[in-house]
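User: quick one, fold this
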Amino acid sequence: MATTETIPAATPPPAADPVPAPTSARQRRVIQDKPARVDRWFDRVTLASGLFVLVLLVLVGFFLLQRSRRAIGGIGIIDFLTTEGWRTDVSPPEIGVLGLLTGTVIVAMIAIVIAVPLGTVSALFITEYASIQSRKYLTALVDLLAAIPSLIFGLWGFLALSGQLSSLAEWIGTHFGWIPIFEISKDANLTNSMFIAGVVVALMVVPIIASVAREVFAQTPPGEKEAALALGSTRWGMIRSVVLPYGKGGIIGGSMLGLGRALGETIAVSLLLPQVPALVYRILENGGSTVSGFIVLRAGADPFTTSGLMAAGLVLFVVTLVTNSLASVVVARSRSGAGVDL
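Assistant:
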């Protein structure tokens, strides 16, 4: 009897993995930023440095405020800000910062009006016109001028420039005397004037403005400069349309840095001005005073005078702080200063 073999049934193949349906949008991969230890230490050091500067600034203001309480309390803040003279030999004393602050601002404005064009032109020449080999020597020369002590400039202005600038002041008064600030009286003494002091301070400020502006001009995108030249622009047209708009923040930043130097200059103005607190409207004639120069000449006086000098220093401190704060806002809004602080 024949036997029938049973054939096992074939097992079905395993089912394939289902193919995921295509999504309408790709999922974004999350990148986790894990800074290295060096980066973390760098962040901590820079944060501590910034906080230290802020604390130091607050301590300086608090120190000046504490030391000036006696004078401000005895005179009154309004009278102190609006009084022109400085007399401690009368009772009650008559001291004020109006004459000192006016002279400080006038000298600083004269310096900035002269120094900003010179510094900007010097920076443009170094970055755009000078050869590559001479550029490094000119850069080193500008940096060297910025390192000269103010005492040297003061002595140079007092012994050498004062007589030369007196002739220039006489010429300006003769041809532009119809302008009130350039008016000179007959047989007026034209030495030790705010004009001479402003010119000397301008020579001290020019290297600072030139250094800051040069660094910003050198960072102008070369593609934009080449595009302007390729479209047929002249070198000056390229500078006017590309370099100067890009470097506006550097020009303003350097100018404000130079203004801070001019407002606080001490030794040079103490040698060049008679330091008599008064409102002087003729900048070419002898006269004028500044806050810092007056302080250095009256240092070591009686306690009340010292307190008044501290109050004058506090006013200058506030003026400089407000000026730099306004400059920081302007620089931050410019193209070359976007994302940075002054």
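User: anything notable?
Assistant: Strands lie at 86-87, 94-95.
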